[in-house]
């Protein structure tokens, strides 16, 4: 097993798309024995995405690998992207990669990992950029390379979007209100809060417009989508509901 690469503090392996194609993938395609101190080799059919960081030579948030494409059918061109626990699914359009004065040298495909089997797979936050050679111009000719197709794959885990400050405040307020409210004050469907989202919205809109009382008003609490109606006409109590659906 190859030793991982330890770079000095402050150094990162962060090549451009063009560098991945021209400095690494072209070399690997021309000579399969070519190796890089920063790019390992892996089979994406035999490895789950969460296992790949441990197989990489370097990387903290993104990891690079040479990968020999596995054909789904011996005589076909479709790639086999399935693993034991899921599959990689392409998303969006492939992007062209150019060198020099607009010379096409490669393509980049974006894929997302799904658990389970298509078409009922569950989307995860594991993402892969797959780089392949493309073009027959001045710098190289794809047809001159062997049929076995080498690609470079960059894998990373997409971070979930962070809630805004307003959403965090709203979420905290919702928790405080719902925890502080006595159980008998939190209405269910029998108290007029329907499980229908449209009806809930109408209730909230009416409260906001003052239909339920001169002093009634609506407070919307994101991201839980709770609302609280404060109506002094009903014993100065807070009435609670949830936007369902």
TrEMBL record:
Superkingdom: Eukaryota
GO cellular component: nucleus
Limits of the NAC domain: 7-158
InterPro entries: NAC-dom, NAC_dom_sf
Keyword annotations of the record: DNA-binding, Nucleus, Transcription, Transcription regulation
Pfam families: NAM
A single GO BP: regulation of DNA-templated transcription
SUPFAM superfamilies: NAC domain (SSF101941)
MF term (GO), any: DNA binding
Protein name: NAC domain-containing protein
Organism: Vanilla planifolia
Highest classification ranks of the organism: Eukaryota, Viridiplantae, Streptophyta, Embryophyta, Tracheophyta
């Amino acid at each position: 097993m190859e030793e991982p690469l330890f770079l000095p503090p402050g150094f990162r392996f962060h090549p451009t798309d063009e560098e991945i194609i021209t400095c690494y993938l072209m070399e690997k395609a021309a000579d399969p024995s070519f190796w890089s101190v920063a790019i390992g080799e892996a089979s994406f059919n035999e490895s789950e995405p969460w296992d790949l960081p441990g197989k990489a030579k370097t990387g903290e948030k993104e990891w690079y690998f040479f990968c020999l494409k596995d054909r789904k059918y011996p005589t076909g061109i479709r790639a086999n992207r399935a693993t034991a626990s899921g599959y990689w699914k392409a998303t969006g359009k492939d992007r062209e990669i150019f060198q020099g004065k607009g010379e096409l040298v490669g393509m980049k495909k974006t894929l997302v990992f799904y658990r389970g089997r298509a078409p009922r797979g569950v989307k995860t936050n594991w993402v892969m950029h797959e780089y392949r050679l493309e073009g027959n111009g001045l710098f190289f000719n794809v047809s001159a390379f062997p049929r076995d197709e080498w690609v470079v794959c960059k894998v990373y885990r997409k971070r979930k979007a962070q809630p805004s400050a307003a959403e965090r405040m709203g979420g905290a307020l919702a928790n405080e209100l719902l925890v502080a409210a006595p159980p008998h004050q939190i209405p269910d469907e029998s108290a007029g809060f329907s499980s229908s989202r449209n009806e809930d919205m109408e209730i909230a809109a009416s409260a906001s417009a003052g239909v339920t009382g001169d002093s009634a008003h609506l407070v919307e609490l994101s991201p839980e989508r709770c609302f609280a109606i404060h109506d002094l006409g009903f014993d100065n109590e807070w009435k609670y509901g949830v936007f369902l659906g």
